[in-house]
Design goal:
The protein is mainly α and about 160 residues long. It contains nine helices and no strands.
């Protein structure tokens, strides 16, 4: 009888060990699956920081497009940017200008350029159109961040308030 008890006890301990190992394996698979899903979600986001893009947008774009990018003097950007590629966005923001001004005025730099943008925005000069931002260091340096912010706004991932840093 004692030998049978030893065998049963051994089988019981081995069975418990096997069950414990199986449970740990299941946890590992779940953690690995969650990690893959998080990596896939991260890879599908456009490059850039939504928070930094929001800050640049508030500083440089909100006066025309509104603080939530839903329009003002300029158009609502959410439906426009929602279906736009990043390369098209960069091209429009950095190089597009449609105003009816002489080339020497349109290509001004520094304080003269800022005064010109203010004049166009306040409708004192030129046609109302998107200015070229290529020469603006902050916009140029954070164009991917602007795109990330506007895509997040257009697909509903970011609300109208300040993003999490």
């Amino acid at each position: 009888m004692p030998k049978l008890f030893k065998i049963s006890r051994t089988v019981l301990v081995l069975g418990a060990g096997f069950a414990f190992a199986a449970a740990l394996t299941g946890c590992t698979v779940e953690v690995q699956n969650r990690q893959a899903a998080q990596e896939l979600a991260q890879a599908s986001k456009p490059p850039g920081s939504v928070y930094t893009g929001w800050r640049v947008f508030q500083e440089k774009c909100a006066r025309c497009h509104g603080p939530a990018a839903t329009g003002g003097e300029g158009p609502n950007l959410l439906p426009i940017v929602g279906g736009m590629s990043s390369s098209r966005f960069v091209g429009l923001v950095l190089t597009r200008y449609d105003w009816a001004l002489p080339a020497t005025q349109a290509n001004s730099t520094g304080a003269a350029r800022e005064a010109l943008i203010d004049s166009v925005v306040q409708r004192r000069e030129g046609a109302i159109a998107m200015p070229e931002w290529q020469g603006e260091p902050r916009v140029n340096a954070h164009i991917a961040d602007l795109y990330a912010y506007l895509v997040a706004r257009s697909n509903g991932a970011q609300g109208t308030g300040r993003p999490v840093q």
